[in-house]
Amino acid sequence: MDLPRADADPDSREGRGGMAAVMPAAPPGSGRTALDRRRIIGAAVEFIDAHGLAALTMRRLGAHLGVEAMALYRYVPSRDNLLDGVVEAVVDELYGDPDVHLTPGHGWQDYLQRLAHGVRRIALAHPEVFPLVATRPPAAPWVRPPLRSLRWVESFLVALIDSGFSEEAAVSAYRAYSSFLLGHLLLEVSQQGVAVNAEDKPEGVEEAQAATDLSEYPTVVRLEPLLSLDESAAEFEEALENLLERLELVLREGRAPGRGDDRE
Amino acid sequence: MDLPRADADPDSREGRGGMAAVMPAAPPGSGRTALDRRRIIGAAVEFIDAHGLAALTMRRLGAHLGVEAMALYRYVPSRDNLLDGVVEAVVDELYGDPDVHLTPGHGWQDYLQRLAHGVRRIALAHPEVFPLVATRPPAAPWVRPPLRSLRWVESFLVALIDSGFSEEAAVSAYRAYSSFLLGHLLLEVSQQGVAVNAEDKPEGVEEAQAATDLSEYPTVVRLEPLLSLDESAAEFEEALENLLERLELVLREGRAPGRGDDRE
DNA sequence: GGGTCGCTGTTTACGTCGTAAACAGCGGGG
DNA sequence: CCCCGCTGTTTACGACGTAAACAGCGACCC
C-alpha cells in the first residue's frame, strides 16, 4: 500500500473515466450538434467548473451553447431543475470510474475505500459543484447527500450485508459513512476555494489589518504554519481508515453500534 | 401531532441563551428603533429562519424592517456581505450559550463535548442558515467552516495543548473535529429540510412513480423503515464519542496521528 | 436665529435575471 | 401541396441588486 505524499494526491485532477457522463460532445470540428438535456447539463457542469456557480445564468449558458437562453427551456423546466440535473450528472460520474465497483470483489473494506476515493475525486474535480450536492436535498430523506442515487445506496447496503453485517449495522454504517464523506469533502473543497480566492486578491491593506487582529490569538499565530499545511489527502486517508476499523469492530462483535462501549 | 421521540433531543429548539447575539436590539419603550448593522443582520437571520434563504431579498428584508431596500445599504455594503454577517452572527451565538465555555474547566473532553453540542444546537435552530456556514468560505484557509471565528480556534488549540496534546496533535485534532462537526450537522439539517419539504408537498403522482422505481432496489425497500428512522441525536453522540476516544489515544501515545498504524 | 452641514432614509433608474407567450423556420407525412 | 409538429427566437414582464440623486431633519457655529 503506497502512502500518499502531500504533493502527489492520488485523487487529483485526472479524468479517471467519469468524464464520459459529462462531455458535451465536442463543439469544434463538426457542425452544430442538436440540443438535448444531457448536452445542456454537461455544458452547465463545464461552465460552473470554469467560471463558478454564481456565474451560471440561463442566458450565459445559452450563449456558451451558441443558442438563446429560452431554447434551453425545451429540455429543462427551470434553472433549479437544471442544477438538480448538474448534481445528478456529477455524482453519476462514479459509474464511469473504473476504480469504483458496484459490487465488492475484494471485500467490503476495499469496496468502501474505492467508493470513498471515487467520490473524493469527483469533489476535487468539481469543487464549485460539490457544495450543491450538500445543499440540494435528495428526493427521499434516507438517500443521503454524498451518495444520492438509489443504486449506490442499494449497492452499499448489499455489500455490507453480504459481508456479514446485520441490517441495522449496515444502515448505521451507511449513515456514518455518508456523513464522514460529506464533511471531509465539503471542508476540503471549501478550503481549496479559499486558497484560490486568496491568490487572486492581493490586498495589502486587509493583509496588514488581519495581521494586527491576530495579536490576540498567539497560539493561532504560532501554529499557523501547521494550520495552513494542506494535509487533506492524509487526513482523509486516516479518517477513512479509522471509520473502517470502527465498522470492522461492529461487524466482529455482531451488534449495532448504538451504545455501550465495552472496550476498555 | 408531535413526532415520536424526536423531542427527546437535548439539542432541540430551546433558546439555550444564544439568542442574545441575534435579537434585533430590544425596542425598549420607544417606537421605531433606528437602523443599524446589528439590527439588520438580526432581522435577516430571523427572516431566513422564517421564510427560507431563497426568500431573502433586500427589498423584502427592508419591508420586514419597515424601510425601503436602499436604506439597508447605509449599513451593509452588499447582499453578499450581509450573508457573511448572518453567518458570523449565527456562529457567534456560541458566546451566548451558557453550556459552552471558552476554557476547559472539566477537562478537554468535556470542553469538546460542550462545544460540539453548542454548535449542533445552533445548526438545529437555524437549519436554513447553516448550509451558508459551509458554503461561504472563512477569511483564512485554516479557520475552518464550522468554528469560523479565530477566538474559537485559539480556544480550541489552547485547550488541547494545555491538556497535554503536542502542537501537531492539537492541529490535527482541530481538523478532525471540524470536519466531523460540519459533516454531521450539514447532513442533519439537510435531512430535516427534506422531511419538512416532503410534508408540505403531497403529490400522489410522484409518490406512485417513486414507488415503482424502487422495485429495482429491494434492499433499500426492505430497509426503508430502518433507513428513515431519525437517529441523528444518537448518531451524533456516538460519532462524537468515537472521535474523542480516538483523540484520547493520540494523547496517550503522544504522537501526531498522521501515520503509522502499527497494526498490519 | 438663521444658515449650513452631516446623517439618514426615499426615489428614481439601470442592467440583469428567470421565465411566460407569441412567433418563425423547416422537414416529413396526408 | 399543404399543413403540422418540432425546434429555436423574439418579445415582454416582474423582480432582483444596487448606483445616484434627492429630501427631511437635528445639531452646530456665527
Walk me through the structure.
- The structure is a homodimer of 264-residue chains.
- By secondary structure, chain A is mainly alpha-helical.
- Chain A has 2 domains: 18-93, Arc Repressor Mutant, subunit A, CATH 1.10.10; 102-253, Tetracycline Repressor, domain 2.
- The first copy, chain A, is built from 10 helices and no strands.
- In chain A, helix 1 (37-51) packs across helix 3 (79-92), helix 4 runs parallel beside helix 7 (167-199) and helix 7 (167-199) packs antiparallel against helix 10 (232-253).
- Chain A is globular.
- Chains A and B meet through helix 5, helix 6, helix 7, helix 9 and helix 10 of A and helix 5, helix 6, helix 7, helix 9 and helix 10 of B.
- Chain A binds a DNA duplex (30 and 30 nucleotides) through residues 34-35, 57-59, 67-71, 73-74, 78-79.
Concise synopsis of the structure shown:
Two copies of one chain form a homodimer. Chain A is mostly helical.
Write the layout of secondary structure elements.
Two copies of one chain form a homodimer.
Chain A lengths: L36 H15 L6 H7 L14 H14 L14 H19 L4 H6 L14 H13 L4 H33 L4 H10 L4 H10 L4 H22 L11
The structure holds a DNA duplex (30 and 30 nucleotides).
